[in-house]
Structure formats: C-alpha cells, structure tokens
C-alpha cells in the first residue's frame, strides 16, 4: 500500500493534543523501555521512524550528544516535532523509502509505529540498508497476549495496523539481515532490540 493511501489513523487531526491525551500518556511505557535500554554515544546518527511529535528525539538529545533525525508521514505531527526539537533534521517521509545513505546510521528507533507501517517488508529492507553493520534497531510496540492480538488484528484488518509478538518481530528482521540482541517487556509494552549484521 502506498504512503498516500495511509490515512486511517489520522494522527494529524489530534497532533496538537497527542502528548497530553491518552496516547501520549500510554506511550510513557514505550518511552521508558527505549530510554532504559538504548545504547548511544557522542555523535551517533540516530533516526526515529514515525517520530510523531518528537518526544523521543527531544529526550535523547537532552541526554546524549547525538545527531538526531526524525521522519513521519503526518504533517501536523511533524509541526509539533519541529517546534519541540528546533534545529533537528525532521522530514516528511515514509519509512519505506528514506533519504539516508547506505550504512549511514548508528541507531534506528520505531516507537508505537511499526504496527502502523503499511508495507512492513519494505521498511525492514530500508532499515537494513541505512543502518551500519553492528548498529542497533529498537522496535517498541504493544505487547498483547496471543488471543487478544488475534482479535485486535481481526478488528483492524481493514486498517493499516497489524500487531506482532516479539518473536515474530525478531523473525521478520532476521530475514533482512539482523540478529536478535534482546527482548524487554514492561506492562503492555515490548521492546525488540536487533543488531544489523
Ligand atoms: C502512535 S504514533 C507514535 C509517535 C511516536 N513514535 C511516539 O512514540 O510518540 C505513530 C506514528 O507513526 C507514523 N507513521 C505511520 N505510518 C508511517 C510510515 N509509513 N512512515 C513513517 N511514519 C509513519 C504516524 O504518522 C504517527 O505519527
């Protein structure tokens, strides 16, 4: 499915309220999983895919001297991100075809975003292209028990959303040249950390 067809979740319509409403509050579990487990170093080139309102980029830039990049397909979300993260490289762009050079990034994050990506196979190939060997990929997404996940996936079958278990996420990326580093779980969140081979 093309980027232009992806309008189902309409983040743009609630971009200015996103951080303070339930989605922003629910996201704290996923943010903490990332902040507690991410490994960064000075000058690391870090991309947040589906960066939304830029909360993760802002927080990581306050904690580390990184070169931060963010991409998203929703203009209004990016407006909030740009205001929150002045001077950062924040671009309107889909996860399937990014402007980054081959093997140019030290870390890629996708927080609460992977389940939205309409062409996950294209994203998996793209992130394998832009990450350096040995660099890490952090996928934070909801952790639903199997039966609930099947029900939710059935209910959202006509939208772009599809939820996977940690093991399924790991297996998908292993096919694109990654190895699993660790899986962390916290409340309703899961973090899958992978290393580019
Ligand atoms: C639930 S929000 C999460 C935002 C942010 N990562 C956070 O955790 O605060 C999901 C984001 O993914 C973005 N998104 C959806 N499909 C995308 C795609 N194909 N490429 C890039 N971003 C996408 C949406 O526009 C939205 O901003």
Question: How does the SSE layout of this entry go?
Answer:
Elements: H1 22-26, H2 28-37, E1 45-49, H3 55-63, E2 67-72, H4 75-84, E3 89-92, E4 105-111, H5 120-130, E5 131-142, H6 146-155, H7 166-174, E6 178-186, E7 189-196
Parallel strand pairs: 1-2, 1-4, 2-3, 4-5
Antiparallel strand pairs: 5-7, 6-7
S-adenosylmethionine binds at residues 3, 6, 11, 27, 30, 49-53, 55, 71-74, 77, 94-95, 111-113, 116-118.
Structure characteristics:
Rossmann fold, disordered N terminus, 197 residues, alpha/beta
Small-molecule components bound: S-adenosylmethionine
- Say which CATH homologous superfamily is assigned: Vaccinia Virus protein VP39
Secondary structural class: alpha/beta
User: Strand-residue fraction?
Assistant: 25-35%
Q: Into how many domains do the coordinates divide?
A: 1
What is the distance, rounded to the nearest whole angstrom, between the alpha carbons of the first and last residues? 28 Å
Strand order of the largest sheet: 3-2-1-4-5-7-6
What is the H/E string?
A: HHEHEHEEHEHHEE
For the record, the CATH architecture stands as 3-Layer(aba) Sandwich
The portion of residues assigned to helices is 25-40%
Q: What is Rg? A: 15 Å
Mean pLDDT: 93
Low-confidence stretches: 1-7
Annotation field: number of helices: 7
Shape: globular
The biggest beta sheet, please? 7 strands, mixed
């Amino acid at each position: 499915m093309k980027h232009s067809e992806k309008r189902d979740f309409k983040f743009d319509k609630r971009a200015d309220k996103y951080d303070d409403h339930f989605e922003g509050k629910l996201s704290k579990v996923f943010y903490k999983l990332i902040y507690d487990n991410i490994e960064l170093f000075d000058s690391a080139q870090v991309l947040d895919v589906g960066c939304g309102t830029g909360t993760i980029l802002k927080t990581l830039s306050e904690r580390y001297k990184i070169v931060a990049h963010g991409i998203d397909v929703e203009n209004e979300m990016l407006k909030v991100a740009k205001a929150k993260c002045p001077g950062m490289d924040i671009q309107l762009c889909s996860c399937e075809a990014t402007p980054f050079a081959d093997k140019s990034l030290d870390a890629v994050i996708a927080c609460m975003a992977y389940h939205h990506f309409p062409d996950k196979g294209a994203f998996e190939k793209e992130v394998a292209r832009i990450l350096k060997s040995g660099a890490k990929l952090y996928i934070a997404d909801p952790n639903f028990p199997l039966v609930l996940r099947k029900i939710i996936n059935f209910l959202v079958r006509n939208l772009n959303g599809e939820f996977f278990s940690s093991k399924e996420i790991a297996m998908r990326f292993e096919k694109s040249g990654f190895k699993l580093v660790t899986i962390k779980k916290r409340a309703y969140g899961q973090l899958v950390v992978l290393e580019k081979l």
